[in-house]
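Minutes, project check-in
Item: structure for the 263-residue chain
Input as provided by the requester:
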Amino acid sequence: MKNKTWLKWTEEEIDLLKIHWKFSTMKILLSNFPNRTYNSLMLKASQLGIKSEIERKRKGSLQYLEVLDSNSCYWWGFIIADGHLSKKGELVISLDIKDKVHLKKIATHLNRFITEREYVNSFTKNISVSCNLRIQDKVFGKKWLSILNINSPKTYTPPDLSIFLTKEKLLPFFIGLVDGDGCIWVSKNWLNLRIELHLNWLNTLEIIAFKLKEFYNIDCKVKVTKKLTAKLEINTKKDLKILKNSLNNLDYLERKWSKLYTL
């Protein structure tokens, strides 16, 4: 798989960049260079010595995520599951193109545009398309890496989620976690919501399950699977109804929760 920032520049692209760089906004530039990122365009213009007559600072603010209301807690759950916060303070969320509308929701809150790129799917070997959100703030990053105690990849080492383990914050945070890393199945005789993560997440899932029971009387089963992963499951209509009824005012992933509309 080749990242689009590594693609060799063609003479046609260079000529086009020289034409547009002086007066075009970054939004227009990105639309004219679908295989290039913000950083690659900035780097190439610098290498070519092209001067711009307009300001092209990255737009957006992470302030929305600093105030922990229900919806921002939802997005923190989604970020913990499906996002990345780097030591440089860059927040990155990359989703399949089918969830572009969903990614646009948080992009709107952060006043940030999203981009698309093609890549070769490692399983099917077919060309797929992803949508991506990137926004950087070193102060924000340093603060939240400390709050969440993120020192290594969260896939294998769960963050400290203490800040979200209150009655007001946990349920929307959990719904965001489900949207990022969970699955929901509904059939005539079977209901199942599942989050399956690395074994190192076992204790964290047990704490979440305990708090869901304490705060909302939701029953969860947490266990180690035969694959040596940690799994949290909810299997009752009563508990799934509680989750469904908590979706109001959240930017939830509609394609996932629509399965519960008949409950």
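Outcome recorded: The chain has ten helices and eight strands.
No further action items on this chain.
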